[in-house]
Amino acid sequence: MSDGDEGNAAYGHKAFKRSRSHFADRITADGRDGWPVEAGRYRLVVSRACPWASRVLVSRRLLGLEDALSLAVVDPIQDDRSWRFTLDADGRDPVLGIRFLSEAYDRRETGYPGGVSVPAVVDVPSGELVTNDFQQITLDLATEWTALHRPGAPDLYPRARRDEIDTVMAQVYEDVNNGVYRSGFATTQEEYEAACAGVFRRLDLLTDRLAGQRYLVGDTITEADVRLFTTLVRFDAVYHGHFKCNRWKLAENPVLWAYARDLYQTPGFGDTVDFDHIKRHYYEVHTGINPTGIVPLGPDLSGWLTPHHREELGGRPFGDGTPPGPVRPGEEIPAQGRP
Ligand SMILES: N[C@@H](CCC(=O)N[C@@H](CS)C(=O)NCC(=O)O)C(=O)O
């Protein structure tokens, strides 16, 4: 079996193409799409394996939205009905009462024929999917959910820096976030080489950028760092081997490795990462590119906790704000998912 979006390339012998999110309603302060920001009304459904969903996990923690937006974590292994709540008692999400995420999609659109993807935000009272628009959800958490942010929450999308953040994020998306998928699911040598070369060309440029500055834009953590982090944290565990992005390992690039460790060790980043879910999902689910489903034992994760010395570059991680507090009880990463 293969990811819905990703299966076309794995089996169809055509270039990997990421599908656009089908449900693009926005949850906003003024509720203009019919979905007003409201504490406790929505449920965020993620796979901790998924880099697009992981963006939302990090933003939710940094902004302190855990009480306002509850969390459901799916099993990292889908079956033929896609994402399922088999980690929960009786295989049902305790709040939505459903066994498969597809049930929320069906409630929104009867007979919805498209793929079921995470991240997904579901309206709890009606059980309907509101949005699976992974490019917009985090921007809205940063800019529309402000009334519910914790005291000391950082500004992840500062108005004065948006043009620069958007430019960096577009490059990171094309060449890195999605580039690794185009490399991994390529079905011709040319396609693979172009995608893989593009990944490393961009990582080289990002290395230059990050050699002398702690964060991608300005001197604080922004949405751009959240989006680069979610790919870097998976790099050696899955993209280097499984997706054949193997010119070098992250741990062999002193600048990016220190940058990634710095973020990993910042509250709100590493405490959302489950390496066990990441490895099992990629290696077991994408049987088109790993037919045995064997999950490798490595890499050694202990390096993630080693000193990074990036504070010597200055920078104010949370700007005028503060780091988030401890992880919410029940949302801790089990020991097998941590270094
Ligand atoms: N293309 C997705 C972006 C998110 C995405 O690709 N998520 C993957 C997991 S990393 C997914 O849920 N794929 C569908 C599946 O695996 O069944 C969308 O249209 O919103």
From TrEMBL:
According to the UniProt record, where is the region Disordered?
A: 306-339
List the top taxonomic levels of the source. Answer: Bacteria, Bacillati, Actinomycetota, Actinomycetes, Kitasatosporales
Enzyme Commission number(s) of this protein = 1.8.5.-
What organism does this protein naturally occur in? Streptomyces kebangsaanensis
InterPro entries referenced in this protein's UniProt entry, alphabetically? Glutathione-S-Trfase_C-like (IPR010987), Glutathione-S-Trfase_C_sf (IPR036282), Glutathione_S-Trfase (IPR040079), GST_Omega-like_C (IPR047047), GST_Omega/GSH (IPR016639), Thioredoxin-like_sf (IPR036249)
Name of the protein in its database record: Glutathione S-transferase family protein
Question: EC class of this enzyme?
Answer: oxidoreductase
Keyword list (alphabetical) reads:
Oxidoreductase
Database matches in PANTHER family: GLUTATHIONE S-TRANSFERASE OMEGA-LIKE 1-RELATED (PTHR32419:SF6), GLUTATHIONYL-HYDROQUINONE REDUCTASE (PTHR32419)
Question: Cell membrane: present as a keyword of the record?
Answer: no
- Residue ranges occupied by any GST C-terminal domain in the UniProt entry: 155-285
What GO molecular function annotations does the UniProt record carry, in alphabetical order? oxidoreductase activity
